[in-house]
Amino acid sequence: MKKITLLLLLFSNLVFSQNQELDAKFEKILAEKNDDIRIDKLYLLTGTTSETDATITLKIAQKLLIQGQKRNDKITETFAISLFSYQALITGNKTKSLKYALKSLEMAEKIGNNNLLAITKNRVAHNYLDPVKKKELYKEALKNAELGKNVNFQQVISKNIGAIYTKMGVLDSGLFYLQKSEQLMSSKKFTSLQSSVYLELGNTYAKMKSTELAKAYYNLALKKSKEENTIRNTTSIYYNLADFYYKLNQVDSTIVYAKKAIEIVDKTPFSNDVMRPSKLLKDIYRNKNNDLAMKYADMYQMANDSLNNLQSLQRNQLLTFEEDLRQQELVKVNLEANEQEKENLQYIFIAIGILSLIILFLLLSRSFITNTRLIHFCGIVGLLIVFEFLNLLLHPFLEKITHHSPILLLLGLVGIASLLVPLHHKVEHWATAKLVAKNKEIRLAKAQKTIEELAIKTENS
């Protein structure tokens, strides 16, 4: 019991320290003012965890989403939803993955940042089953990454294009893009998961029957994955080596690498990755050794069950994340509704204020305001306020029907001005002329009354 309590305490301390470390990284990254640098740092922060621990990555996505909405940082918010899409894909929830990938792409298109578009398009492409459509989307993402001048994104997306070409059997094109990815990788001190590029080059050369080059790249991938300390990538390389030798009918080498692929993930969070190598070993031993065949058959089944359980757990986490997202969307909608209500109230107060000023001016112009120039000036200012208020009311409507097109918006405003300006002059002339005439009548009446009073006084005296 004491041992269990001690282990729980150690685990809670570890989780707490991890959370503190992540929070510190968030603050530093989100404080970055340059959008492209912030996107690059977010990608590098989550690039490794996405391939190592889905649970931590989901927590990161949640925190990024909350922080993005709190700070009104649309880029961080979009990145979080895109990351959520990628994790849904890894855990086998392809429907949710595509839904959120498309949502993040729509948000990125409104923002217009090329590096954000590169990430979101890349993750949308992951969800397509049609290799031709997948390839085209990857190419679009690569164009955005080139416009954004981000070497990391160019390298990763070039690798994805090369890998899809290789799977399609278009090996020359596959090799071209993979070599491009390798060149980009060597041009920068740090790029994400270099071992995966070497692995794909090994697979391409294997399909091209260039055995020695395939071996060289597989070994280079293995060396790099150990430097990166990515267990999941290392076991994948071992499995691909085993499969490579299996196709060459070199059974001994196949067994060695398949066993290494199993050993490296044994008793780790990625133990379900033993599925492919254990199946390969089961097939090898099927007609040679029934005991070993049974051993690896059991291992395959256990890994399959473990994977299903893990995916079920992660799907539950995705559902809770989605509920959090829904609640945050509701809060956002309520805030927008409140803002709209405040804006409408301001319009009402402005309208009431304008009407009050006009009435007050008309009343005062009969008695207190007697200067003709002042009447002209007040009339012009009042009418300007009225027409500018109308322009303010019509502007959002114009933006909506023109879909924010600058050319159409300009034409709309010019059209309104062409109607309002002549009307403005006519009303101004009519109003000021009437007021001046009325004012003159009042002044003449007062003058006449004064003369009459003086005449009466003179007669009496």
Please explain how this structure is put together.
The protein has 461 residues and is an all-alpha fold. It has 3 domains: 1-127, Serine Threonine Protein Phosphatase 5, Tetratricopeptide repeat (Alpha Horseshoe); 249-324; 336-460, no CATH class. It is built from 17 helices and no strands. It has helices at 2-30, 35-52, 54-70, 74-90, 94-111, 114-126, 131-148, 151-168, 171-186, 194-207, 211-228, 231-247, 251-265, 275-285, 290-364, 372-402, 406-460. It is rod-shaped, with a radius of gyration of 36 Å. The model is unreliable at 1-17 (pLDDT under 50).
Find the count of extended strands (DSSP E, 2+ residues): 0
Helix fraction? over 70%
Number of spatially distinct domains: 3
Helix and strand sequence: HHHHHHHHHHHHHHHHH
Discrete helix count: 17
| Main sheet properties | none
Radius of gyration: 36 Å
Q: What form results from the Cα inertia axes?
A: rod-shaped
Structural class: mainly alpha
